[in-house]
Each structure stands twice: as C-alpha cells, then as structure tokens.
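Aim 2, interim progress: modelling of the uracil-bound target.
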Amino acid sequence: MKAADRLQRLHEAIAGCQLCPLATTRTVAVPGEGPVGAPVMLIGEGPGEQEDLAGKPFIGRAGTILDDMLTIAGLSRWQVFITSLVKCRPPGNRDPKGSEIQACSGYLDRQIELIAPGLIVTLGRFAMARWFPDQRISRIHGRPARCDSRMVFPTFHPGAVLHQPKTRSLLEEDFRNLAASLSSLPSGRDRAEKAENGTL
Ligand code: URA
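Predicted structure of the complex, ligand included:
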C-alpha cells in the first residue's frame, strides 16, 4: 500500500480513537494535514475550539499567526505537514495531561514514520519536551538539533503571541532561521518520491 494510503488509514483510526478520555469530550478528532514526504512537519499542542469543530489543524487565531510565520520561512501550508501532540481538544483549551500525550504518542510516531520529514518544528514546550524533556524553551528555541535521523527545531507556540505579544518577534526570528535550515534539505519532489518508495 502507498504511504499516502497508509496515512489515510491512520487518520481514519484517529477519527475513531477511544484511547483516552478526550474521546468523550471532542467534537471531532484533528489528525493533521499535509503531504507524505513533506520536508517539514510542525507539531503543536492540541486542537482548540475551531479545530475541534472543523477537524483541521491551526485554523483559529493561532493558525493565522502560524501562517504568517510560514510565509517568513518561505513555506506554504500545502508544502508542510501540520499536526499536534494530542489529536483531540482538551476541554476549555487546558494543557494536555501526560497520560493523554502518552495515549496519543503512537499516532504521532506513525505519522513521523510515514511522512518522513527532514525537519520537525516543535511549537511550544509540550511538543519540545518529546525530544528535549529537560530543556527550557527560552534557552533552546530557534536552534535546530539532530535527534535520531532528523533535525528537530524547537520554537514557541504561535498561540503564545496572543497572550504575550512580545513573543512575536522571537517567533519571527526563529522562522527566519528556519528558512536557513531548510536550504540544506532535499527538494520536496525528491522527498515525496522517496517517501512513496520507502527509500527516504
Ligand atoms: N493549537 C495547537 O496546538 N493545535 C491546533 O490545531 C490549534 C491550536
């Protein structure tokens, strides 16, 4: 089966997931979206109100800020894969619990395997903690590090700008640095072909 079909199957499984209590409070799950072989995968925290209603990632106010940042990095939405640590909305937009992140982690592992991004951008401290559990975001944001076979680029969550407007300039600077990190990745078309063939 092609990687895109396997991803589709995975997203169907996520849509029906009952692995944690968020399944009882969600409207719909938000698996994420973007192409197999996307050079960049962005990982947020969890769906908010708008995302929970529409089943699409980052379409609310934080999504508008994310779009601005992607533009700064020279990227469009259709080129990247966007998802979150937990695929169902934590009620009232509270932080996801460790048990919920754990329950959902197999889905993220599988997405990373199938999409095979060259670079992962973690948005906020929860996604950062998956790769850098003992770090502080204020210390390591904007600095890519090699983790296993890929680069991981930690930065702030775009939603942070809504509460702390001065975060915006830091986020912008990080996405300018991201553009530089991207120039060393193979082109999107090469990656998409290799991902489909399982040779990435
Ligand atoms: N915040 C996230 O982490 N993900 C979304 O999809 C929206 C807001």
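The pocket of uracil is lined by residues 30, 44-48, 51, 57-58, 62, 84, 159 (CB under 6 Å). The chain has a mean pLDDT of 94.
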